[in-house]
Structure formats: structure tokens, C-alpha cells
Write a structure and sequence with these properties.
Helix content: 55-70%
Strand content: under 5%
Distance between the termini: 96 Å
Order of helices and strands: H
Structural class: mainly alpha
Largest sheet: none
Number of helices: 1
Radius of gyration: 31 Å
Number of strands: 0
Shape: elongated
Length: 68
């Protein structure tokens, strides 16, 4: 033959050992993190709503009594 024959590619794949206990603990940590983040978002949204209501009340009172 005039040309070199192609060979198949070889990979050095090392399979990982599956630990079901670790998988359960990781899922639990992920769920806790999601719950914590959603709590922070709700807390921040409630603060924002509170500040908006206070500012709206102040502007209403200023307009009502003719200061602005």
C-alpha cells in the first residue's frame, strides 16, 4: 500500500465511581440553596414594595396639603 492505514482513535476514559449517598446529599443541598435564594428574592421584593408605599404616601400627603 502506498498510504498509511488509518487507525481508530483511543481515549483514556476513566469511569467515575457512582456514590448514591453523595448524590442524595447533593440534591438536598441544591434544594436548600434554591429555597434560600427564593426567600431572599421574596424578602427583597417586600422591602421594595414597602419603600414604594412609603414614598407614595409621602407624595400623596404633600400633594393633598398643597406643599408641592
Amino acid at each position: 500500500m502506498l498510504m498509511k492505514r488509518p487507525e481508530h482513535k483511543r481515549f483514556d476514559y476513566q469511569p467515575r465511581y457512582y456514590k448514591p449517598e453523595k448524590d442524595k446529599s447533593q440534591k438536598f443541598r441544591d434544594r436548600l440553596e434554591i429555597a434560600y435564594r427564593s426567600h431572599l428574592v421574596r424578602k427583597n421584593n417586600s422591602k421594595l414594595l414597602f419603600y414604594f408605599l412609603i414614598i407614595s404616601l409621602i407624595i400623596y400627603l404633600l400633594l393633598r396639603f398643597g406643599i408641592l
